[in-house]
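hey can u check if this looks right to u? its 361 residues, i copy pasted from the old doc so theres a chance i mangled smth
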Amino acid sequence: MQHRIARLFAGADAYDAYIVLAPENVRYFSGFTGEGMLLLTPQRATLVTDGRYSVQADLELARADKLAFSVRVTDAVHDHAALLALAVEEAGARRVGFEDDVWTVAQHARLAACLPEGAVLCGVGDAFTRMRMVKDEQELSCIARAARIADEAFAHILTFIRPGVTERAVALELDAFMQRQGASGSSFGTIVASGPNAAMPHAVPGERALRAGDVVTMDFGCVYEGYCSDMTRTIAIGAISPVLKDIYNLVLFAQLSVLAALAPGKTGRQMDAVARGIIADAGHAEHFGHGLGHGVGLQIHELPRLSQVQGDIVLAPGHVVTVEPGVYLPDAGGVRIEDLCVITTDGARTLSAAPKELIVL
């Protein structure tokens, strides 16, 4: 973790110290997975937590050659302000960065009231999230393993799906299988949407039974060592309508076109435009209502975004993103195909290996 903290303080505009609250950022800088807050200075990292996590903190905190990690335990659960303020005072920090896109007004007021005279809190926005965009080899290894587990889950679920099985049963089987393969859990609420429900990109699995003529869209992923995966596949239960088959081929062509174009130096907006243009040219512009993709890491939705709205970030080696175009026809169904990709020095490598040709069960 030392190299990450060193990067944080390497910039000319770095603050004297940073207070880290978001759990994924605390884990990124320290390795700690419980509840707590972290004070980072160039010389020392101090974790403030409560008695429920004191043993866990000692076990999990990373040890670095030149940077000391210390743990301070509060008497009251969730009351960290006083100990954090004391650590700020001992560090002699005056300009203290904090995640103003994460903190509540009450949290800010509580800590500001405890800070020593002369110390001020300075919002850093999404600076930590932007740091996390470029994954190191250890992070990429965890994400790749999470992606392999999702691939294995897809192969397994094809043996489970049959007419009469409910969406909810399919979702539960996917979740259970991924945990049996070593995942700590699902990276988001698994989506299984069949028939007309597949026209809803974020449908919630229900008691609808799969039936002949359905398309079934499954969007799922898992967490491995804290890192997420994300994949979507759409399959058919028996013969489907020519319209849905055409939609499937259109979405697959759009997705493959983006994968061929994905490379460093391009923006997320440009990548979104590749798929959106293909789908619009086929007459389905109004049926592709979400962004093309998003970053994945310690959170399932991270920067960078492949989107017309938030797609200004230039892709770089080490970014991990999803590519997930979709077309959704109300009352008929929908198709989405999604892969997880890592940007390389000369293009992109697809981490999702499950087949994408239309599978008919």
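The chain has a mean pLDDT of 94.
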